[in-house]
Design brief:
alpha+beta, Endonuclease I-creI, 4-stranded antiparallel beta sheet, globular
Length: about 160
């Protein structure tokens, strides 16, 4: 990651608090033993007319990608367990409104970067599902229709 000062980290954390989201998603994947994979994402949003702060953040973090949506919004995204965990660990002291989500994402990414899903115990998988729903319920809006029971079933955690 690029070099950052505390001021830069505080600015980025404030941007995440106001115009960002943290997502821990479970995606179907036919080429894995359990048939799914987890994806951790930090996403920051801005009107495309005012996207310069996102470009600055991308440069400061030295990672991620920018995409312009058809609805006039620009997104900056960072994916990957270790990358998301490292960024959030740096930003955590400055995050105010998404502190609960941030800690849940750090915990989930720590677990996911240590083991493959296929090697996780049922207890570890249940912990991931709990963390996923902490993150999701703290979001202002979630389009996902998957329930906790659905995710547990997909992961083979139901009797």
């Amino acid at each position: 990651m690029g070099s950052r000062s505390d001021t830069d980290s505080a600015y980025i954390a404030g941007f995440l608090d106001g115009d960002g989201s943290l997502m821990l998603q479970v995606k179907s994947r036919a080429d894995t033993k359990r048939g799914v994979r987890f994806m951790a994402t930090i996403c920051l949003y801005q009107d495309t007319r005012h996207e310069k702060p996102l470009l600055w953040i991308q440069k400061r973090l030295g990672i991620g990608y920018i995409s312009r949506r058809n609805d006039g919004m620009t997104e900056f995204r960072v994916n990957g367990f270790e990358q998301v965990r490292d960024i959030l660990t740096t930003l955590k002291p400055f995050i105010r409104f998404k502190a609960k989500q941030t800690q849940a994402m750090i915990d989930a990414c720590a677990l996911l970067s240590q083991k493959f899903i296929r090697d996780m115990s049922k207890k570890e998988l249940r912990k991931l599902v709990t963390l996923m729903f902490i993150i999701r319920t703290e979001n202002y809006k979630s389009r996902s229709t998957l329930t906790k029971e659905d995710v547990n079933r997909v992961l083979g955690l139901t009797p």
